[in-house]
Amino acid sequence: MFKTSSLSAFSPRIFTRVMSTTPLPMPQLPRTDEGKRICQIVRVKPERLEEYKKVHAQVWPEVLGALRKAHVVDYSIHYFAPHNLLIAHMRYIGSDFQKDMDGIKENEATKKWWQLTDGMQESFVPGATGSESGPGWWVEAEEVFRLEG
User: Which is an annotated Pfam family here (predicted)?
Assistant: First the structure.
């Protein structure tokens, strides 16, 4: 238990004075203006959600390596429960987007990963049959706002 005398250093008057004269340092944030920012959406089947989360808690190293080799960085997938949406955000920092995306498609571990995960999802892309071929599996979302560092 604190004694009243030990709290005197934390009085609002002293705290306000210290805070008003001490500038806060600007945090060093990673650059967010590099490369192409990509946001994609797909629906997760509700009955497969826990399985989807479980496999994504331990993504295969070969799949992560293929993404890195293809210059994909800052990649995350979020779940929006009210509509069972998976929302992926990533940045591409390479110089030949199509070549690098084709490289991901040719990676054997990635093909097996997609065979595992595509069945857990439902695409919004008309005519889509899976990640490996066709018009694409995840639909791209348009960026309408951005705040840079």
Answer: rhaM
pTM above 0.90, yes or no: no
Identify the sign of the CA torsion 52, 108, 129, 38: positive
DSSP SS3 for 84: coil
Cα dist from 148 to 27, 34, 40, whole Å = 14, 10, 20
In order of their start, the domains of the chain are 36-140 (3.30.70.100)
- Short-list 63, 143, 137, 139, CA closest to 103: 63
pLDDT digit string, tens, across residues 100-123:
999 999 999 999 999 999 999 999
Both tokens of residue 145? 């706002």
| pLDDT tens figures, 19-39 | 555 566 655 555 666 789 999
